Amino acid sequence: MSESEQTDGTPGRLPAGEVQEMFERIAPRYDLLNRLMTAGLDRRWREAAAAAADVAVGETALDVCTGTGDLAFALARRVGPRGRVVGLDFADNMLERARAKAVERLELVEFVQGDALALPFADDVFDGATVAFGIRNVADLGRGIAEMARVVRPGGRVVILEITTPRRLRRFYELWFDHVVPLLGKLLGRDGAAYGYLPASVKRFPHPPVLAAAMVEAGLEDVRWQLFAGGIVALHYGRVRG
User: Is residue 90 one of the residues assigned to a domain?
Assistant: First the structure.
């Protein structure tokens, strides 16, 4: 089973092939819709995730479910030209756009296609690993986190940036994700179905304390989290046990 394979009809879940096809389809409009849906704040959140990875000049980092590469680029600026950053995704069209952006921006990032549930890397080869707005799309959350922990050296950080259900602002949250986001997807991207998937996938995603517990179970320690945008976005990070 790979990435998001699921066939039980659970809201917010789709078979792996359908999720992959969806991201292939929305790739040309992905960055624009992200900027509009977050009022541009997603860039700031990704910078915070890169900082939480705690990688230094000359070190190595992996960005899982990298999409069009924005978090990978933020990591690359931290490790510098002597470091190494790899961005992994299962959608070819996303990776094509990421590679084009890397050339345009002169960013030194290696982009590879792969499965978040079976990362094509040996144990302990990275100093840190991140994932932004993608871990909720995998079929087995615990396995996805464990794979990230496996490829990071002991003491290195695993970072998860994800949308979550806030305790406050519930009415605004429900209006935005249940109505405005699908409408934006339909009007600007001609793909309301893809952006209708988003609120359902967020609603089934664990609350911050539950996700933190899953990270501990997957082999991380000193797990912490912070909330952004009134609790709509959560940034989790923890270190791989030695």
Answer: yes
